[in-house]
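Subject: design request, 274 residues
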């Protein structure tokens, strides 16, 4: 296993959440690929020993939310392209492949190397070694597919970067045609609580910066179209979850502490996630 940086090392956290949900709450998320990978994870990955049910489910719900956006996008754009920025060990392709779409997984060299070792390769699920905030990856994709609609997903990524860096990425992507971006984020209140979450998953040293209080303000800053801004747990069937987990989710949604945001970076767009 490579010697990952602090941020890169967090790639195991959502994998553990997907495994936990698949074993205990498959009605929220069932990830067969993640279950098959459980025995291959490094011995040092003991996140489940320190996490609560809520922290485990938070990662699984992110995947469930992303699946919903991706499937709706592909229903409207069956030949569209999915790009996963900071892909880590995401297994989204295996849950949502429609047999037609090209997927591109973007991450740093050591992560891509480990991902390939652990997950193998697929003909329509290709990797690109690149910094997510670099222009290299989108240039490569647009050179091959000049006009195809693209959905860029960023799962658990933007938190770790300053606001101007994230806004700079959005502004750069506006030059490249029909691109939508969907990502999870927190508001200012949620950012204050996220340090506790990171401590529970064993990554209190991973500093976080980016948050969004109002999606409309974010969209106006970059002259984009806000397609949706949703509370994180609003679509989740919470039956069977512990009382404290359900209460925490309810409070989070009530105050929009954690949420999903979808943007169309060029022109007008339809709300495609519902």
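Subject: RE: design request

Done. Sequence follows.
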């Amino acid at each position: 296993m490579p010697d990952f940086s602090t941020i890169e090392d967090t790639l195991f956290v959502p994998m553990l959440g997907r495994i936990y949900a698949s074993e205990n709450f498959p009605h929220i998320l069932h990830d067969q690929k993640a279950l098959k990978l459980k025995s291959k994870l490094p011995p040092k990955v003991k996140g489940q020993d320190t996490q609560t049910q809520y922290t485990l489910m938070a990662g699984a719900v992110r995947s469930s939310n992303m699946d919903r956006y991706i499937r709706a996008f592909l229903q409207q754009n069956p030949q569209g392209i999915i790009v996963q920025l900071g892909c880590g060990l995401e297994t989204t392709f295996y849950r949502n492949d429609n047999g037609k779409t090209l997927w591109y997984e973007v991450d740093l060299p050591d992560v891509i190397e480990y991902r390939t070792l652990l997950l193998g390769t697929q003909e329509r699920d290709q990797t690109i070694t690149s910094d997510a905030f670099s222009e290299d990856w989108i240039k490569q994709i647009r050179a091959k597919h000049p006009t195809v609609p693209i959905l860029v997903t960023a799962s658990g990524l933007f938190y770790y970067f300053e606001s101007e860096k994230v806004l700079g990425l959005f502004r750069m992507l506006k030059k490249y045609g029909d691109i939508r971006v969907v990502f999870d984020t927190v508001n200012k209140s949620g950012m204050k609580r996220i340090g506790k979450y990171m401590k529970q998953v064993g990554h209190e040293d991973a500093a976080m910066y980016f948050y969004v209080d109002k999606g409309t303000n974010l969209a106006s800053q970059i002259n984009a179209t806000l397609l949706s801004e949703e509370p994180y747990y609003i679509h989740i069937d919470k039956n069977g979850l512990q009382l404290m987990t359900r209460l925490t989710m309810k409070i989070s949604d009530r105050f929009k502490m954690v949420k999903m945001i979808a943007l169309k970076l060029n022109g007008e767009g339809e709300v495609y996630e519902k």
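Residues 68 and 273 are 7 Å apart (CA to CA).
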